[in-house]
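Task 17 of the worksheet. Students: predict the tertiary structure of the chain below and write it out as structure tokens. Keep your answer in the requested format; marks are given for formatting as well as content.
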Amino acid sequence: MAYPQLNSEITHGNFSLEKFLRDIFVQITKGVNWIRFNNAEAGSAPSTEATGGDTNVSMRLDAKGTGVIGTNQPLVEEMAQVAVTDTATLTIAQLIQKVIDGTPTAAAAYTLPTAALLVAGIANARAGDSFWFCINNKSAGAFTITVAAGSGGTADGTLTVAQNVIRSFLVTITNVTAASEAYFVYGMGA
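Model answer:
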């Protein structure tokens, strides 16, 4: 008996795997977004992706209760470097690239977005969502970068990045209610 290859576009008789997965994983009768599972040839990795009718489709993995999401292998994140020079207001698009390469020509302040812009820039944001980014101070002189929270944000920890220092920052969203958005940014390290 020949078994059909499983992929997101399989149909076998009246069976459609894509419709089946939408029915199981998205319990919305008129859902326009769903999960697609992609097979791969030898030497390549299969993938799972969010797809659908919306322009931007986020995907969440949530455990139940105090359960956790575990993996057998290390997670690898895609990152990109963003160049910023002197004093600037960083955007959410820059922050989620994860690495800010700063090359200030004098002491500089890098201000995070307002809480409203930060929440709006993360699809389906919820209180408790968080992300990391780092700032690499590559200035040619002894110029310090100071990180500040935007309106609605609160900054804590070590917020300065000296020349030739890389510092990590954790941003945690604490409120997503319209007109009351809020976040904390924590500077890590001494």
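Marker's comment: The chain has two domains: 1-73, 80-187. Residues 1-6 have pLDDT under 50 and may be disordered.
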